[in-house]
Amino acid sequence: MERFGLDSKDRLRASALLLILLFQVTERVAGASSLYPLVVSTWPFLEAVERAWSAANNGYSAVDSVVEGCSACEELRCDGTVGPGGSPDENGETTIDAMVMDGVTMEVGAVAAMRYIKDGIKAARLVMRHTGHTLLVGEKASAFSISMGLPGPTDLSSPESIEKWNKWKENNCQPNFWKNVVPANSCGPYHSNGLLLAAETTCLGDGPRRAVELRSNHFGLHSHDTISMAVIDKFGHIAVGTSTNGATFKIPGRVGDGPIAGSSAYVDSDIGACGATGDGDIMMRFLPCYQVVESMRLGMMPKDAAKDAISRIARKFPDFVGAIFAVNKNGTHAGACHGWTFQYSVRSPEMHSAKVFTVLP
């Protein structure tokens, strides 16, 4: 420091200041490591959460850790509604929807109604990394995935999904997702009845509106479910991912909220993340996870943001079934649900293993 004309007292002050700065930086790093990595996921999918946390704890990025966690659920066929072998459509076929989003770059990769490929979340990551697109669908998504190195084509059905489909057929294809068709109580083929059905109307100031249809018989824990996962890595970067084989007995070609950014999941590393599960056909009309992240951006805590997003849907569709978890960039997390009891799982450095949190409707 003599080159800068500093005397011994100045050098002593400069050295002390340098030590203080080094201590503060070390303290900040230590504080961050005590919070991260952090994994939050819908449902008690504990093995998936542990795999994601282990990846993040070993230096994987948030995106790659999310892919590890969701891949575990696909391999395990969590609840029979994630990965291959579950949720047959009306034709008895299983298809996969998946999505991954990077909260730093805001890039999204997704696949929908994908046939013959079992690795949904890995296909979504390939879309994000190797294309300028956000979403690929159907057999073209399958062809893309194979061209990028994923194994396939393979039959995504299982003995369990085929048995479920056969029993449904024996029950005259009830329940199903059709409305305003004939015949109503058989396996079709269906045709428009050509008539406007009478509907309840109420005067709400700007004219009559048709009452919403109640759908509680369609959705439950084992008829439709999504793994939606958020990971905060060691650097504080956040990513989210989802995977599902969709609604059981859906009309072929149906895409739910799983691959839709802002609906099943959303993230901004500056703010936090959200994951959702439930009646995707209803929930995707409200983009609840986008709403949650934006509410946290405006200062709401995760608990209040999640409740607000759920209540917005419930006011319009009082019989819908769904749930949300929210987590901010500081690691504070909460959940909210409607129509069922919801559980979500969390793993952090202070835990010896993943912990399940229960949220009442």
Automatic annotation (TrEMBL):
Domain of life: Eukaryota
Gene3D superfamilies linked: (Glycosyl)asparaginase
Entry annotation: catalytic residues: T226 (nucleophile)
Family statement drawn from the similarity comment of this UniProt entry: Belongs to the Ntn-hydrolase family.
Site (Cleavage): D225, T226
Catalytic activity annotation: Cleavage of a beta-linked Asp residue from the N-terminus of a polypeptide
PANTHER family: L-ASPARAGINASE, N(4)-(BETA-N-ACETYLGLUCOSAMINYL)-L-ASPARAGINASE
Keyword Hydrolase: yes
Oligomer and partners: Heterotetramer of two alpha and two beta chains arranged as a dimer of alpha/beta heterodimers.
Signal peptide (UniProt feature, chain positions): 1-31
Species for this entry: Cucumis melo var. makuwa
Keyword check for Signal: yes
Chain residues that bind substrate: R254, V255, G256, D257, T277, G278, D279, G280
Protein name, as recorded: beta-aspartyl-peptidase
Record key words, sorted: Autocatalytic cleavage, Hydrolase, Protease, Signal
A single MF term (Gene Ontology): beta-aspartyl-peptidase activity
Biological process (GO), any one: proteolysis
EC number(s) stated in the UniProt entry for this protein: 3.4.19.5
GO cellular component, one term: cytoplasm
